[in-house]
Specification:
The protein is mainly beta and about 425 residues long. About 5% of the residues lie in helices and about 45% in strands. The protein has one domain (about 5-420): Tachylectin-2, Chain A. The chain is globular. About 50% of the residues are buried. It binds beta-D-fructofuranose. Beta-D-fructofuranose binds next to β2, β7, β11, β15 and β20. Its EC number is 2.4.1.10.
Length: about 425
């Protein structure tokens, strides 16, 4: 198997590397890059459903958009089963942890609306049962297209396979709320190719998901980010000098880190509607560092390209580690070259080590607000007792300055204010 740099040698751009040396700089519990403690007394959005990945309605330039004064978010959602015998433990009590851990297999796309950018009201399922071609409806991005309220929802159709798809519908408002209509015809866009992006046949633990379309503010073209793994049979990847980076003496041993092969993928649209896409080589690779760079997204600020992606402690490679949270990289243009890890290490907002699973799936919005969901929060000193979330976390404010970021504020649970309002015609 060729190393990263050999492999993408003749392609239009070289992927930037998140190296092992960069990751060695990760410092958990640095207050400037650590999410404030989430209290175990958090409110839940719904007793009926769990929610996790949250996808605010936005325009193609990334602005969080309300419609006739209504904010709209999409969430990955699954029913809670407090009374289902399948989820009772030996003592007949509801095993919420098992129910929560099983949620990915029954994830569906729901929407919520609000007048205040918080206190979300449940709208319902986006697509009727049977519309989506696979069992799981995984993360993506809803894009408001125009003043007619048309929305393209890009998402991932999973099991069987993993396909980036889109479905078009429309947002309709009244004085009393919001409904979504249409969303009846799902169009498959592309799947992993096995040449640039790893396929299921190459690795049963492959990742290929989480589309995030955008218009490049400099060249004006339509692109899409997504999560992938670098192509090749599992175990065949090479963690060479470039992937290791400039490590201190004694840190050259890469262990089994060849199994961690995350990348941030990119595709370019051949048409203006975003129906026809061509995959390009990854923007960023983390071979030898981490196996998942999920829900990648950009913030365009000060003429720079801030790339954010979420990752976990458990997906780090041998010899490197970091908290669950959001990581970031900055470059002067879309294709770099050489996106630089923010704060030296890449870590932008991680969970505190005393509550390592308190939040996940952070989305950094262009106004510096970061939304995420509550996973689990310890309820005792030892951390053995936990309370499962499945609801919105307090929003955090960060300031992005050059190659650094700083935590500067905390807001209410699930606070996602609009950046602009569109009046429907
Ligand atoms: C992030 C994530 C996404 C995926 C979804 C599945 O929390 O792993 O990458 O689309 O959750 O539930």
């Amino acid at each position: 198997m060729k190393s990263n740099t050999e492999k993408f040698g003749k392609t239009p751009h070289q992927p930037s590397l998140w190296t092992r040396a960069d990751a060695l700089k990760v410092r958990a519990d640095d207050p400037t890059t650590t999410q404030p403690l989430v209290s175990a007394n958090f409110p839940v959005l719904s007793d009926e459903v769990f929610i996790w990945d949250t996808m605010p309605l936005r325009d193609i330039d990334g602005n969080i958009t309300s419609v006739d004064g209504w904010s709209v978010i999409f969430t990955l959602t699954a029913d809670r089963h407090p009374n289902d015998p399948q989820y009772l433990d030996q003592n007949g009590n509801y095993d919420i942890t098992r129910d929560w851990n099983d949620r990915h297999g029954r994830a569906k796309m729901y929407y919520w609306f609000s007048r205040t950018g918080k206190d979300w009201e449940l709208g319902g399922r986006v697509m009727a049962e049977g519309v989506s071609p696979t069992v799981r409806e995984w993360a993506g991005t809803p894009i408001l297209l125009n003043e007619q309220g048309e929305v393209d929802l890009y998402y991932t159709a999973v099991t069987p396979g993993a396909t980036i798809v889109k479905v078009r519908g429309r947002v309709v408002t009244t004085e009393h709320g919001v409904s979504l209509v249409g969303f009846e015809k799902v169009k498959p866009l592309f799947e992993a190719d096995g040449k640039m992006y790893q396929t299921e046949a190459q690795n049963a633990f492959w990742g290929f998901r989480d589309p995030w379309p955008f218009r490049d503010p400099k060249d004006g073209k339509l692109y899409m980010l997504f999560e992938g793994n670098v192509a090749g049979e599992r175990g065949s990847h090479k963690v060479g000098e470039a992937e290791v980076g400039d490590v201190p003496p004694g840190y050259e041993d890469v262990g089994n880190s060849r199994f961690q092969t995350a990348c941030v993928g990119i595709a370019v649209a051949r048409d203006e509607d975003g129906d026809d896409w061509e995959m390009l080589p990854p923007l960023l690779t983390a071979v030898g560092v981490n196996d998942q760079t999920e829900r990648p997204h950009f913030v365009f600020q000060d003429g720079k390209y801030y790339l954010f992606t979420i990752s976990h402690t458990f997906t780090y490679a041998d010899g490197v580690t970091g908290p669950d949270g959001v990581y970031g990289f900055v470059a002067d243009s879309l294709f770099g070259p050489h996106a630089v890890p923010l704060n030296g290490s890449g870590l932008v907002l991680g969970n505190p080590s005393s509550q390592p699973f308190q939040t996940y799936s952070h989305c950094v919005m262009p106004n510096g607000l970061v939304t995420s969901f509550i996973d689990s929060v310890p309820t005792d000193e030892t951390g053995t007792q936990i309370r499962i979330g499945g609801t919105e976390a307090p929003t955090v404010g960060i300031k992005i300055k050059g190659q650094q970021t700083f935590v500067v504020a905390e807001y209410d649970y699930g606070y996602i204010p609009p950046m602009l309002d569109v009046t429907l015609k």
